[in-house]
Fold:
Amino acid sequence: MNRSILRLAIPNIISNITIPLLGLVDMILMGHLGSASYIGAIALGGTIFSVLYSFFSFLRAGTTGFTAQALGGNDKTETIYSLYRSICIGIPIILLILSLQIPIAKLSELLLDGSDEVKALAISYFYIRIWAAPANILLYCLNGWFVGMQNTKIPMFIAILINVMNIIFSVVFVIIFNKNVVGVALGTVIAQYCGLTLAIILLIKNYKSYFLKINKDILFNFEKIKRFFKVNTDLMIRSFLLIISIAFFTNQSAKLGDNILAVNMILLQSFYIFSYFTDGFAYAGEALVGKFIGSNDKNNLVKVVRLLLIWGFCISVPFTILYALFPSSFVKIISDNPNILLEIKPYYIYMIAIPSITFAAFIWDGIYIGATASKAIRNTMIIATIFIFIPAWHLLTPKLGNHGLWIAFLCFMTARGVAMTLMAKKNIIQTVKNQ
Structure:
């Protein structure tokens, strides 16, 4: 079982490493331009897309769960139709995003806090990067299907290509053509279409035998569509609340000034880096949990859940040690601004606390998604956001300022892990009846 977990997790970890690497490169490019405004603009611009895509990330997660369960049940027809349905929903989403880009930008400008300079740069970033939406949405569908098929190597190749190309083009546009945040956005757009092209090539090369002539009666089967939308609506709410929480954190940081915004975004990179390592095992959980539920294999389901949580804990230990021993080294990689380097020191404790506090939530996410336990994962997110994060922020920040904001955020992550642990027996283990 450990070999199966690692076979799926390691390619995901490799591909995920490139994501924070890209974020770090963007921060480094902006951090060395001499103004905290550029870091803030990338943070706010990225927040717009995080919130926007949070509505539609269910296309990846839902497709993985349905595909893995169909594969476990040896249902070849339903295996490919889970991809067909996902793409059929993805295409109108793409058209909707592109047609509403001006209202989205105007609304974002009203809701986001920050200096006029930061907001203006963030909106410039938005109007360029929005044209990556078609590639981004279709990649949700394709990558979700690949993981459900127990193949994490293809998403790894795609992610590596996207992020390497993104870094190359961003460096060229920023350093050579002096395009600052616009250059970073252009790099993202070009890289996304490179990734989509590779995904389509690898789909045809590796899974051509799965392709079936589309039967409208099967594609639009009422019960299948109803379940697809029910699960994905719950996942959409869950993803939206997660991203809204991070966006709220970013927005509250901006209210504390450009330097605090830059400080918090740098520290948040340590959160992302750890999450992408842990998500490698969460994605393995999506694939394996879905497969074992599809094949009605309770013994292996219980075993894989236990081992995934052990792996999550084991990953958290070295990260805690590294963050505790070398916090300033991590920060200096991103920015050499003396004001930021001085202001960030009191907040190192939160970077050190992130791994041990957050690993359970990341691992359980993958387990619940693989089980398509969408109602439960939605409810745990509602509890953590509305009943923990917001009240904690309201009570703590007036007296503690940025410390209160960080404590509230870590309470939010703790609540997610605890709630999913308490609900796991009913929503994961007991869904399979055989022993």
Observations:
- The longest helix spans residues 258-294.
- The chain has 18 helices and no strands.
- The chain has a mean pLDDT of 88.
- The chain has one domain: 2-431.
